[in-house]
Fold this sequence. Notes:
With 222 residues, this protein is α/β, with parallel strands linked by helices. The chain has a single domain, classed as P-loop containing nucleotide triphosphate hydrolases (Rossmann fold, 3-Layer(aba) Sandwich). The protein has 6 helices and 11 strands. The strands form 2 sheets. The protein has a 7-stranded mixed sheet with strand order 7-6-8-9-3-10-11, sandwiched between helices. Strands 2-1-4-5 form a 4-stranded antiparallel sheet, with helices on one face. The protein is globular, with a radius of gyration of 18 Å.
Amino acid sequence: MRTRARRSDWQLEMSAPAIVVDGLVKRYYRGTFQRQVSFTLSAAFQAERGQIVGVLGPNGSGKTTLFELITGSNAPSEGRVVVDGRDIHAVRYGERDRLAIHYHQSYQVRAFRKTRPAFLMERAGRTRPLVHLFDEPQFSIQDGYVGFMLDFFRRLRDEGNVVFLCVHPNEPFHLEILREVCGRFLFVNRGTVAELADFDALVAHESARTYLGTLLDTIEPA
Length: 222
């Protein structure tokens, strides 16, 4: 009976979403005495274990803010981010990167605005991150580096992790990378996050097509 219970718990854990972004809103304000909203990011989506999700959008659209909210280094105005069943903003600051970790280009982002004593907060319940967010990693087309990085992303996926790969395409091979490894996409534009089922849906999305511009002319049929 104990073995069956443990197996059932494991199956339930694996079937539950790795991450749920639930009614997430972040507002930024300007002005000292008469505060006005200057920018709003809104997002609601979830991701199952074992996925690579491509993230694209113009500069200033909210991509990095979204990553900061997911990892708990930025506090939401509304909503929550649940990773492995835990509200990441309720987890101890020093343990949040055991749930979700943010890499900006070549270094780890790990800064938290502390609003509560850590001992009053939840434990992460994990030793290794489940969600990996790569914020515009530097790809070099020399010496097989791209292949090494793609194999690394796939290995994380195959181990049951969720990989978010944010790329600002300015070369044709960037689009080829996204098409090759990403199963689905998030397109972030003016603070709105659109879910797109696959690469074909991405290049058919009107705002994404405008953003990608002439790079679309370089795409060869799959």
